[in-house]
Amino acid sequence: AASTVDQLASLVKGFSLEEAQSKYPNCHPDTNPFDLYRAHLTNVLAGVTGVDAVIVYNALQWTTGLDKGDLILATPALRVKGKKPDELAREWVAAFPADDPLVEAPTVNGYFVQFFFKPLPLLKYTLPLIRAEGSEFGNNKSLGLVDPQDPSKGRKKIIIEFSSPNIAKPFHAGHLRSTIIGGFLANLYATAGWDVTRINYLGDWGKQYGLLALAFERYGDEEALERDPINHLFELYVKINQELSAEKEQIEAFKKDGKEDEAKKIADAGLDEQARQYFRKMTDGDASAVAQWRRFRDMSIVRYRETYSRLNIVFDSYSGESQVPEAAMEASAKRMEDLKITEESDGAQIVDFTKHVPGKEGKRLERPLVRKRDGTALYLTRDISELLGREEKYKFDKMIYVVASAQDLHLKQLFKIVELMGYKEIAAKCQHINFGLVLGMSTRKGTVKFLNDILRDVADKMHEVMRANEVKYQQVENPEAVADILGISAVMVQDMTGKRINNYTFDMDKMTSFEGDTGPYLQYAHARVCSIERRAGLSDADLASADTSLLNEPHAINIVRLLAQWPDVMQNTLKTLEPTTVLTYLFKMTHALSSSYDHLQVVGSEPELMKARMALYTSTRVVLANGMRLLGLSPVERM
Ligand code: ARG
Q1: 2-117: which CATH topology?
Q2: Atom of ligand 1 nearest to the CA of 379
Q3: Bridge partners of 318?
Q4: How far apart are CA 186 and CA 393, in angstroms?
Q5: Would you say the CB of residue 164 lies under 6 angstroms from ligand 1?
Q6: Residues 404-441: pLDDT tens digits?
Q7: Does residue 208 have its Cβ closer than 6 Å to ligand 1?
Q8: Residue 267 has what pLDDT?
Q9: Confidence at residue 173, expressed as pLDDT on a 0 to 100 scale
């Protein structure tokens, strides 16, 4: 790729790759086409405007659409005093050197100066670059370096905690979204060169797991457990909780009738008390209680792993509430007490934020419990020690929690407590990535939704859709596997379409349709290019020798302009942390593709034209696949 740039840079008199890289922030013209244009335009514009080059560089922005140019300069961003912005725009355009090798003569649009890249050099540069970089095209591995100038100092470390379901409870929509978004963020940081650790923080501790163990003692079935631990444990959980509610009602009824003694008898010996005692045994490290619980946990993890792998996700660590050591929580409790962060209230320990955080913010943080009256720890207590434990273990540079916005308050409380404990820098490295609800999620089989069931239902539906086209269906080697991938794509794309914070409705018909911007449509766009490649049957050498100057149709030029944007889209995504940033781009690309087919025929065109067009489409396929993989999708070649 470097030689391509050298070749191109030689077109631009006086342009030096080394100089651009050292002069401008994160400028890599050898891997990012836009960086070349930004650096070159800056060199020219600094002369024209007399403004400092770095200011110009940062003021060159993307446009909202190809019709507005490839890069745009908002004249006020250069902070030149004494003249109106639109006047400046006209002046600078007039002073811009004629016949620039890379860009067309700029145009004025209000106080913006618009730049359109010249097609020929863009094609000559971008297509070979994509061919050379392949699956690495768009990645910016240097962003994750501790010191971009000195790779020997290593990479920055990021922890991404996501998915985090609760054992023996349904994997609900919140976990689904956390899994999808977290998997995407992990990929994103990895492509930016960060050292990523994926943690699944299981809900696997607390009195309810004592209750579950009791249920297993009573109604457990070894064989059912081995066969399907997730569902069996869930059945037990449901059954024992029904009994528990009945017990609570009974107590209330006795109380209402004034039969306090009867009520107390149940309260002292009933299920709830037994569960409490059982959980006590677990926290005290009772060997058989711990062993039983560990089996449930391990067996559940085996199944989770299988499901996650369908989504291309592998966790580095299955942590969880159970893994937070009692001693660590005691140490945290002591520190909070010494620093007077906690106080007693009704025998329990609470944090009254109104006393630590002034004004409205303190009120908003409320007065959470951190120790119950009987001394047991809570969800929040465990999170505090877990966070500090991770700092010690991983020495992370950044940590992201991917958790539903229903827990906004919880995470705010967590970060604030850690800050109050004197760990301001640690709290500052933590970020909550939240998301809205999924409405109307239910399966055909019933109301309880485990991830596997959801994915199976959507895959069934996709299989139906595929079968509707008998001819194509016959050519797909393993239709079940493809239907599974398409179903997963359908679910994931629907989830990632809007901004994270928005709620959306789980709509099976809509997500599995080929109409509109859906997962199956995206897969179809990819598979269609693959099919053209198969039919054209050209070799790598054919593509490498293609004469790209033959690509002079507007459709071809628009595609290459979009292709050149991909590295910038990835960098922008690191700022927004929104999957929709990637998806919006990919759909722009698929629309450009589908409208181009009638104009840019490959098979049947004369040989040189065929090579050139195939080279363009193959680059498009590479970028589509890179984007899809970043989102966590597996691009299919046939469907
Ligand atoms: N298991 C929790 C739930 O299902 C989510 C855990 C979120 N992470 C955390 N560190 N609190 O609600």
Answers
A1: Gyrase A; domain 2 (3.30.1360)
A2: 11
A3: 200
A4: 19
A5: yes
A6: 999 999 999 999 999 999 999 999 999 999 999 998 87
A7: no
A8: 92
A9: 84
pLDDT one-digit tens code per residue, 20-72? 999 998 999 999 999 999 999 999 999 999 999 999 999 999 999 999 999 99
CA of 433 to the centre of ligand 1 (A): 12
- Mutual orientation of helices 271-283 and 260-269 as an angle, nearest 10°? 30
**Any idea which fold 486-631 has?**
Isoleucyl-tRNA Synthetase; Domain 1 (1.10.730)
Catalytic site residue 172?
yes
- Please state the rounded mean pLDDT for residues 270-283: 94
Q: How far apart are the C-alpha atoms of 83 and 79, rounded to whole Å?
A: 10
User: Who contacts 401 (Cβ-Cβ below 8 Å, separation ≥6)?
Assistant: 161, 162, 411, 430, 431, 432, 433
Classify residue 613 as left (phi > 0), alpha (psi -120 to 50) or beta.
Answer: alpha
CATH 1.10.730.10 maps onto the chain at: 486-631
| Residue range(s) occupied by CATH 3.40.50.620 in the chain | 158-205+285-321+383-436
Q: Kindly report the backbone phi and psi dihedral angles of residue 504, in degrees, each rounded to the nearest multiple of 5, phi listed first.
A: -145, 165
Is the distance from the beta carbon of residue 106 to the nearest atom of ligand 1 less than 6 Å? Answer: no
Q: Specify burial of residue 352 (Cβ count, 10 A radius: 0-12, 13-18, 19+).
A: middle
Residue 514 — φ and ψ, nearest 5°?
Answer: -95, -5
Quick: pLDDT tens for 174-199: 899 999 999 999 999 999 999 999 99
Q: Look up 175 and say whether it is catalytic.
A: yes
Q: Answer yes or no: 555 catalytic.
A: no
The hierarchical CATH code for the domain 158-205+285-321+383-436 is 3.40.50.620
Among residues 169, 416, 449, 611, which one is catalytic?
169
All CATH 3.30.1360.70 domain ranges of the chain, comma separated, are: 2-117
Extract the tokens encoding 314.
């592998």
Q: For all residues of the chain together, what is the average pLDDT?
A: 94
- pLDDT of 220 above 60: yes
Ligand 1 center to 32 CA (angstroms): 38
SS (H, E, C) 182-207: HHHHHHHHHHCCCEEEEEEEEECCCH
User: How many Å apart are CA 571 and CA 55, to the nearest integer?
Assistant: 19
Nearest in space to 410 (alpha carbons), one of 370, 372, 439, 375? 370
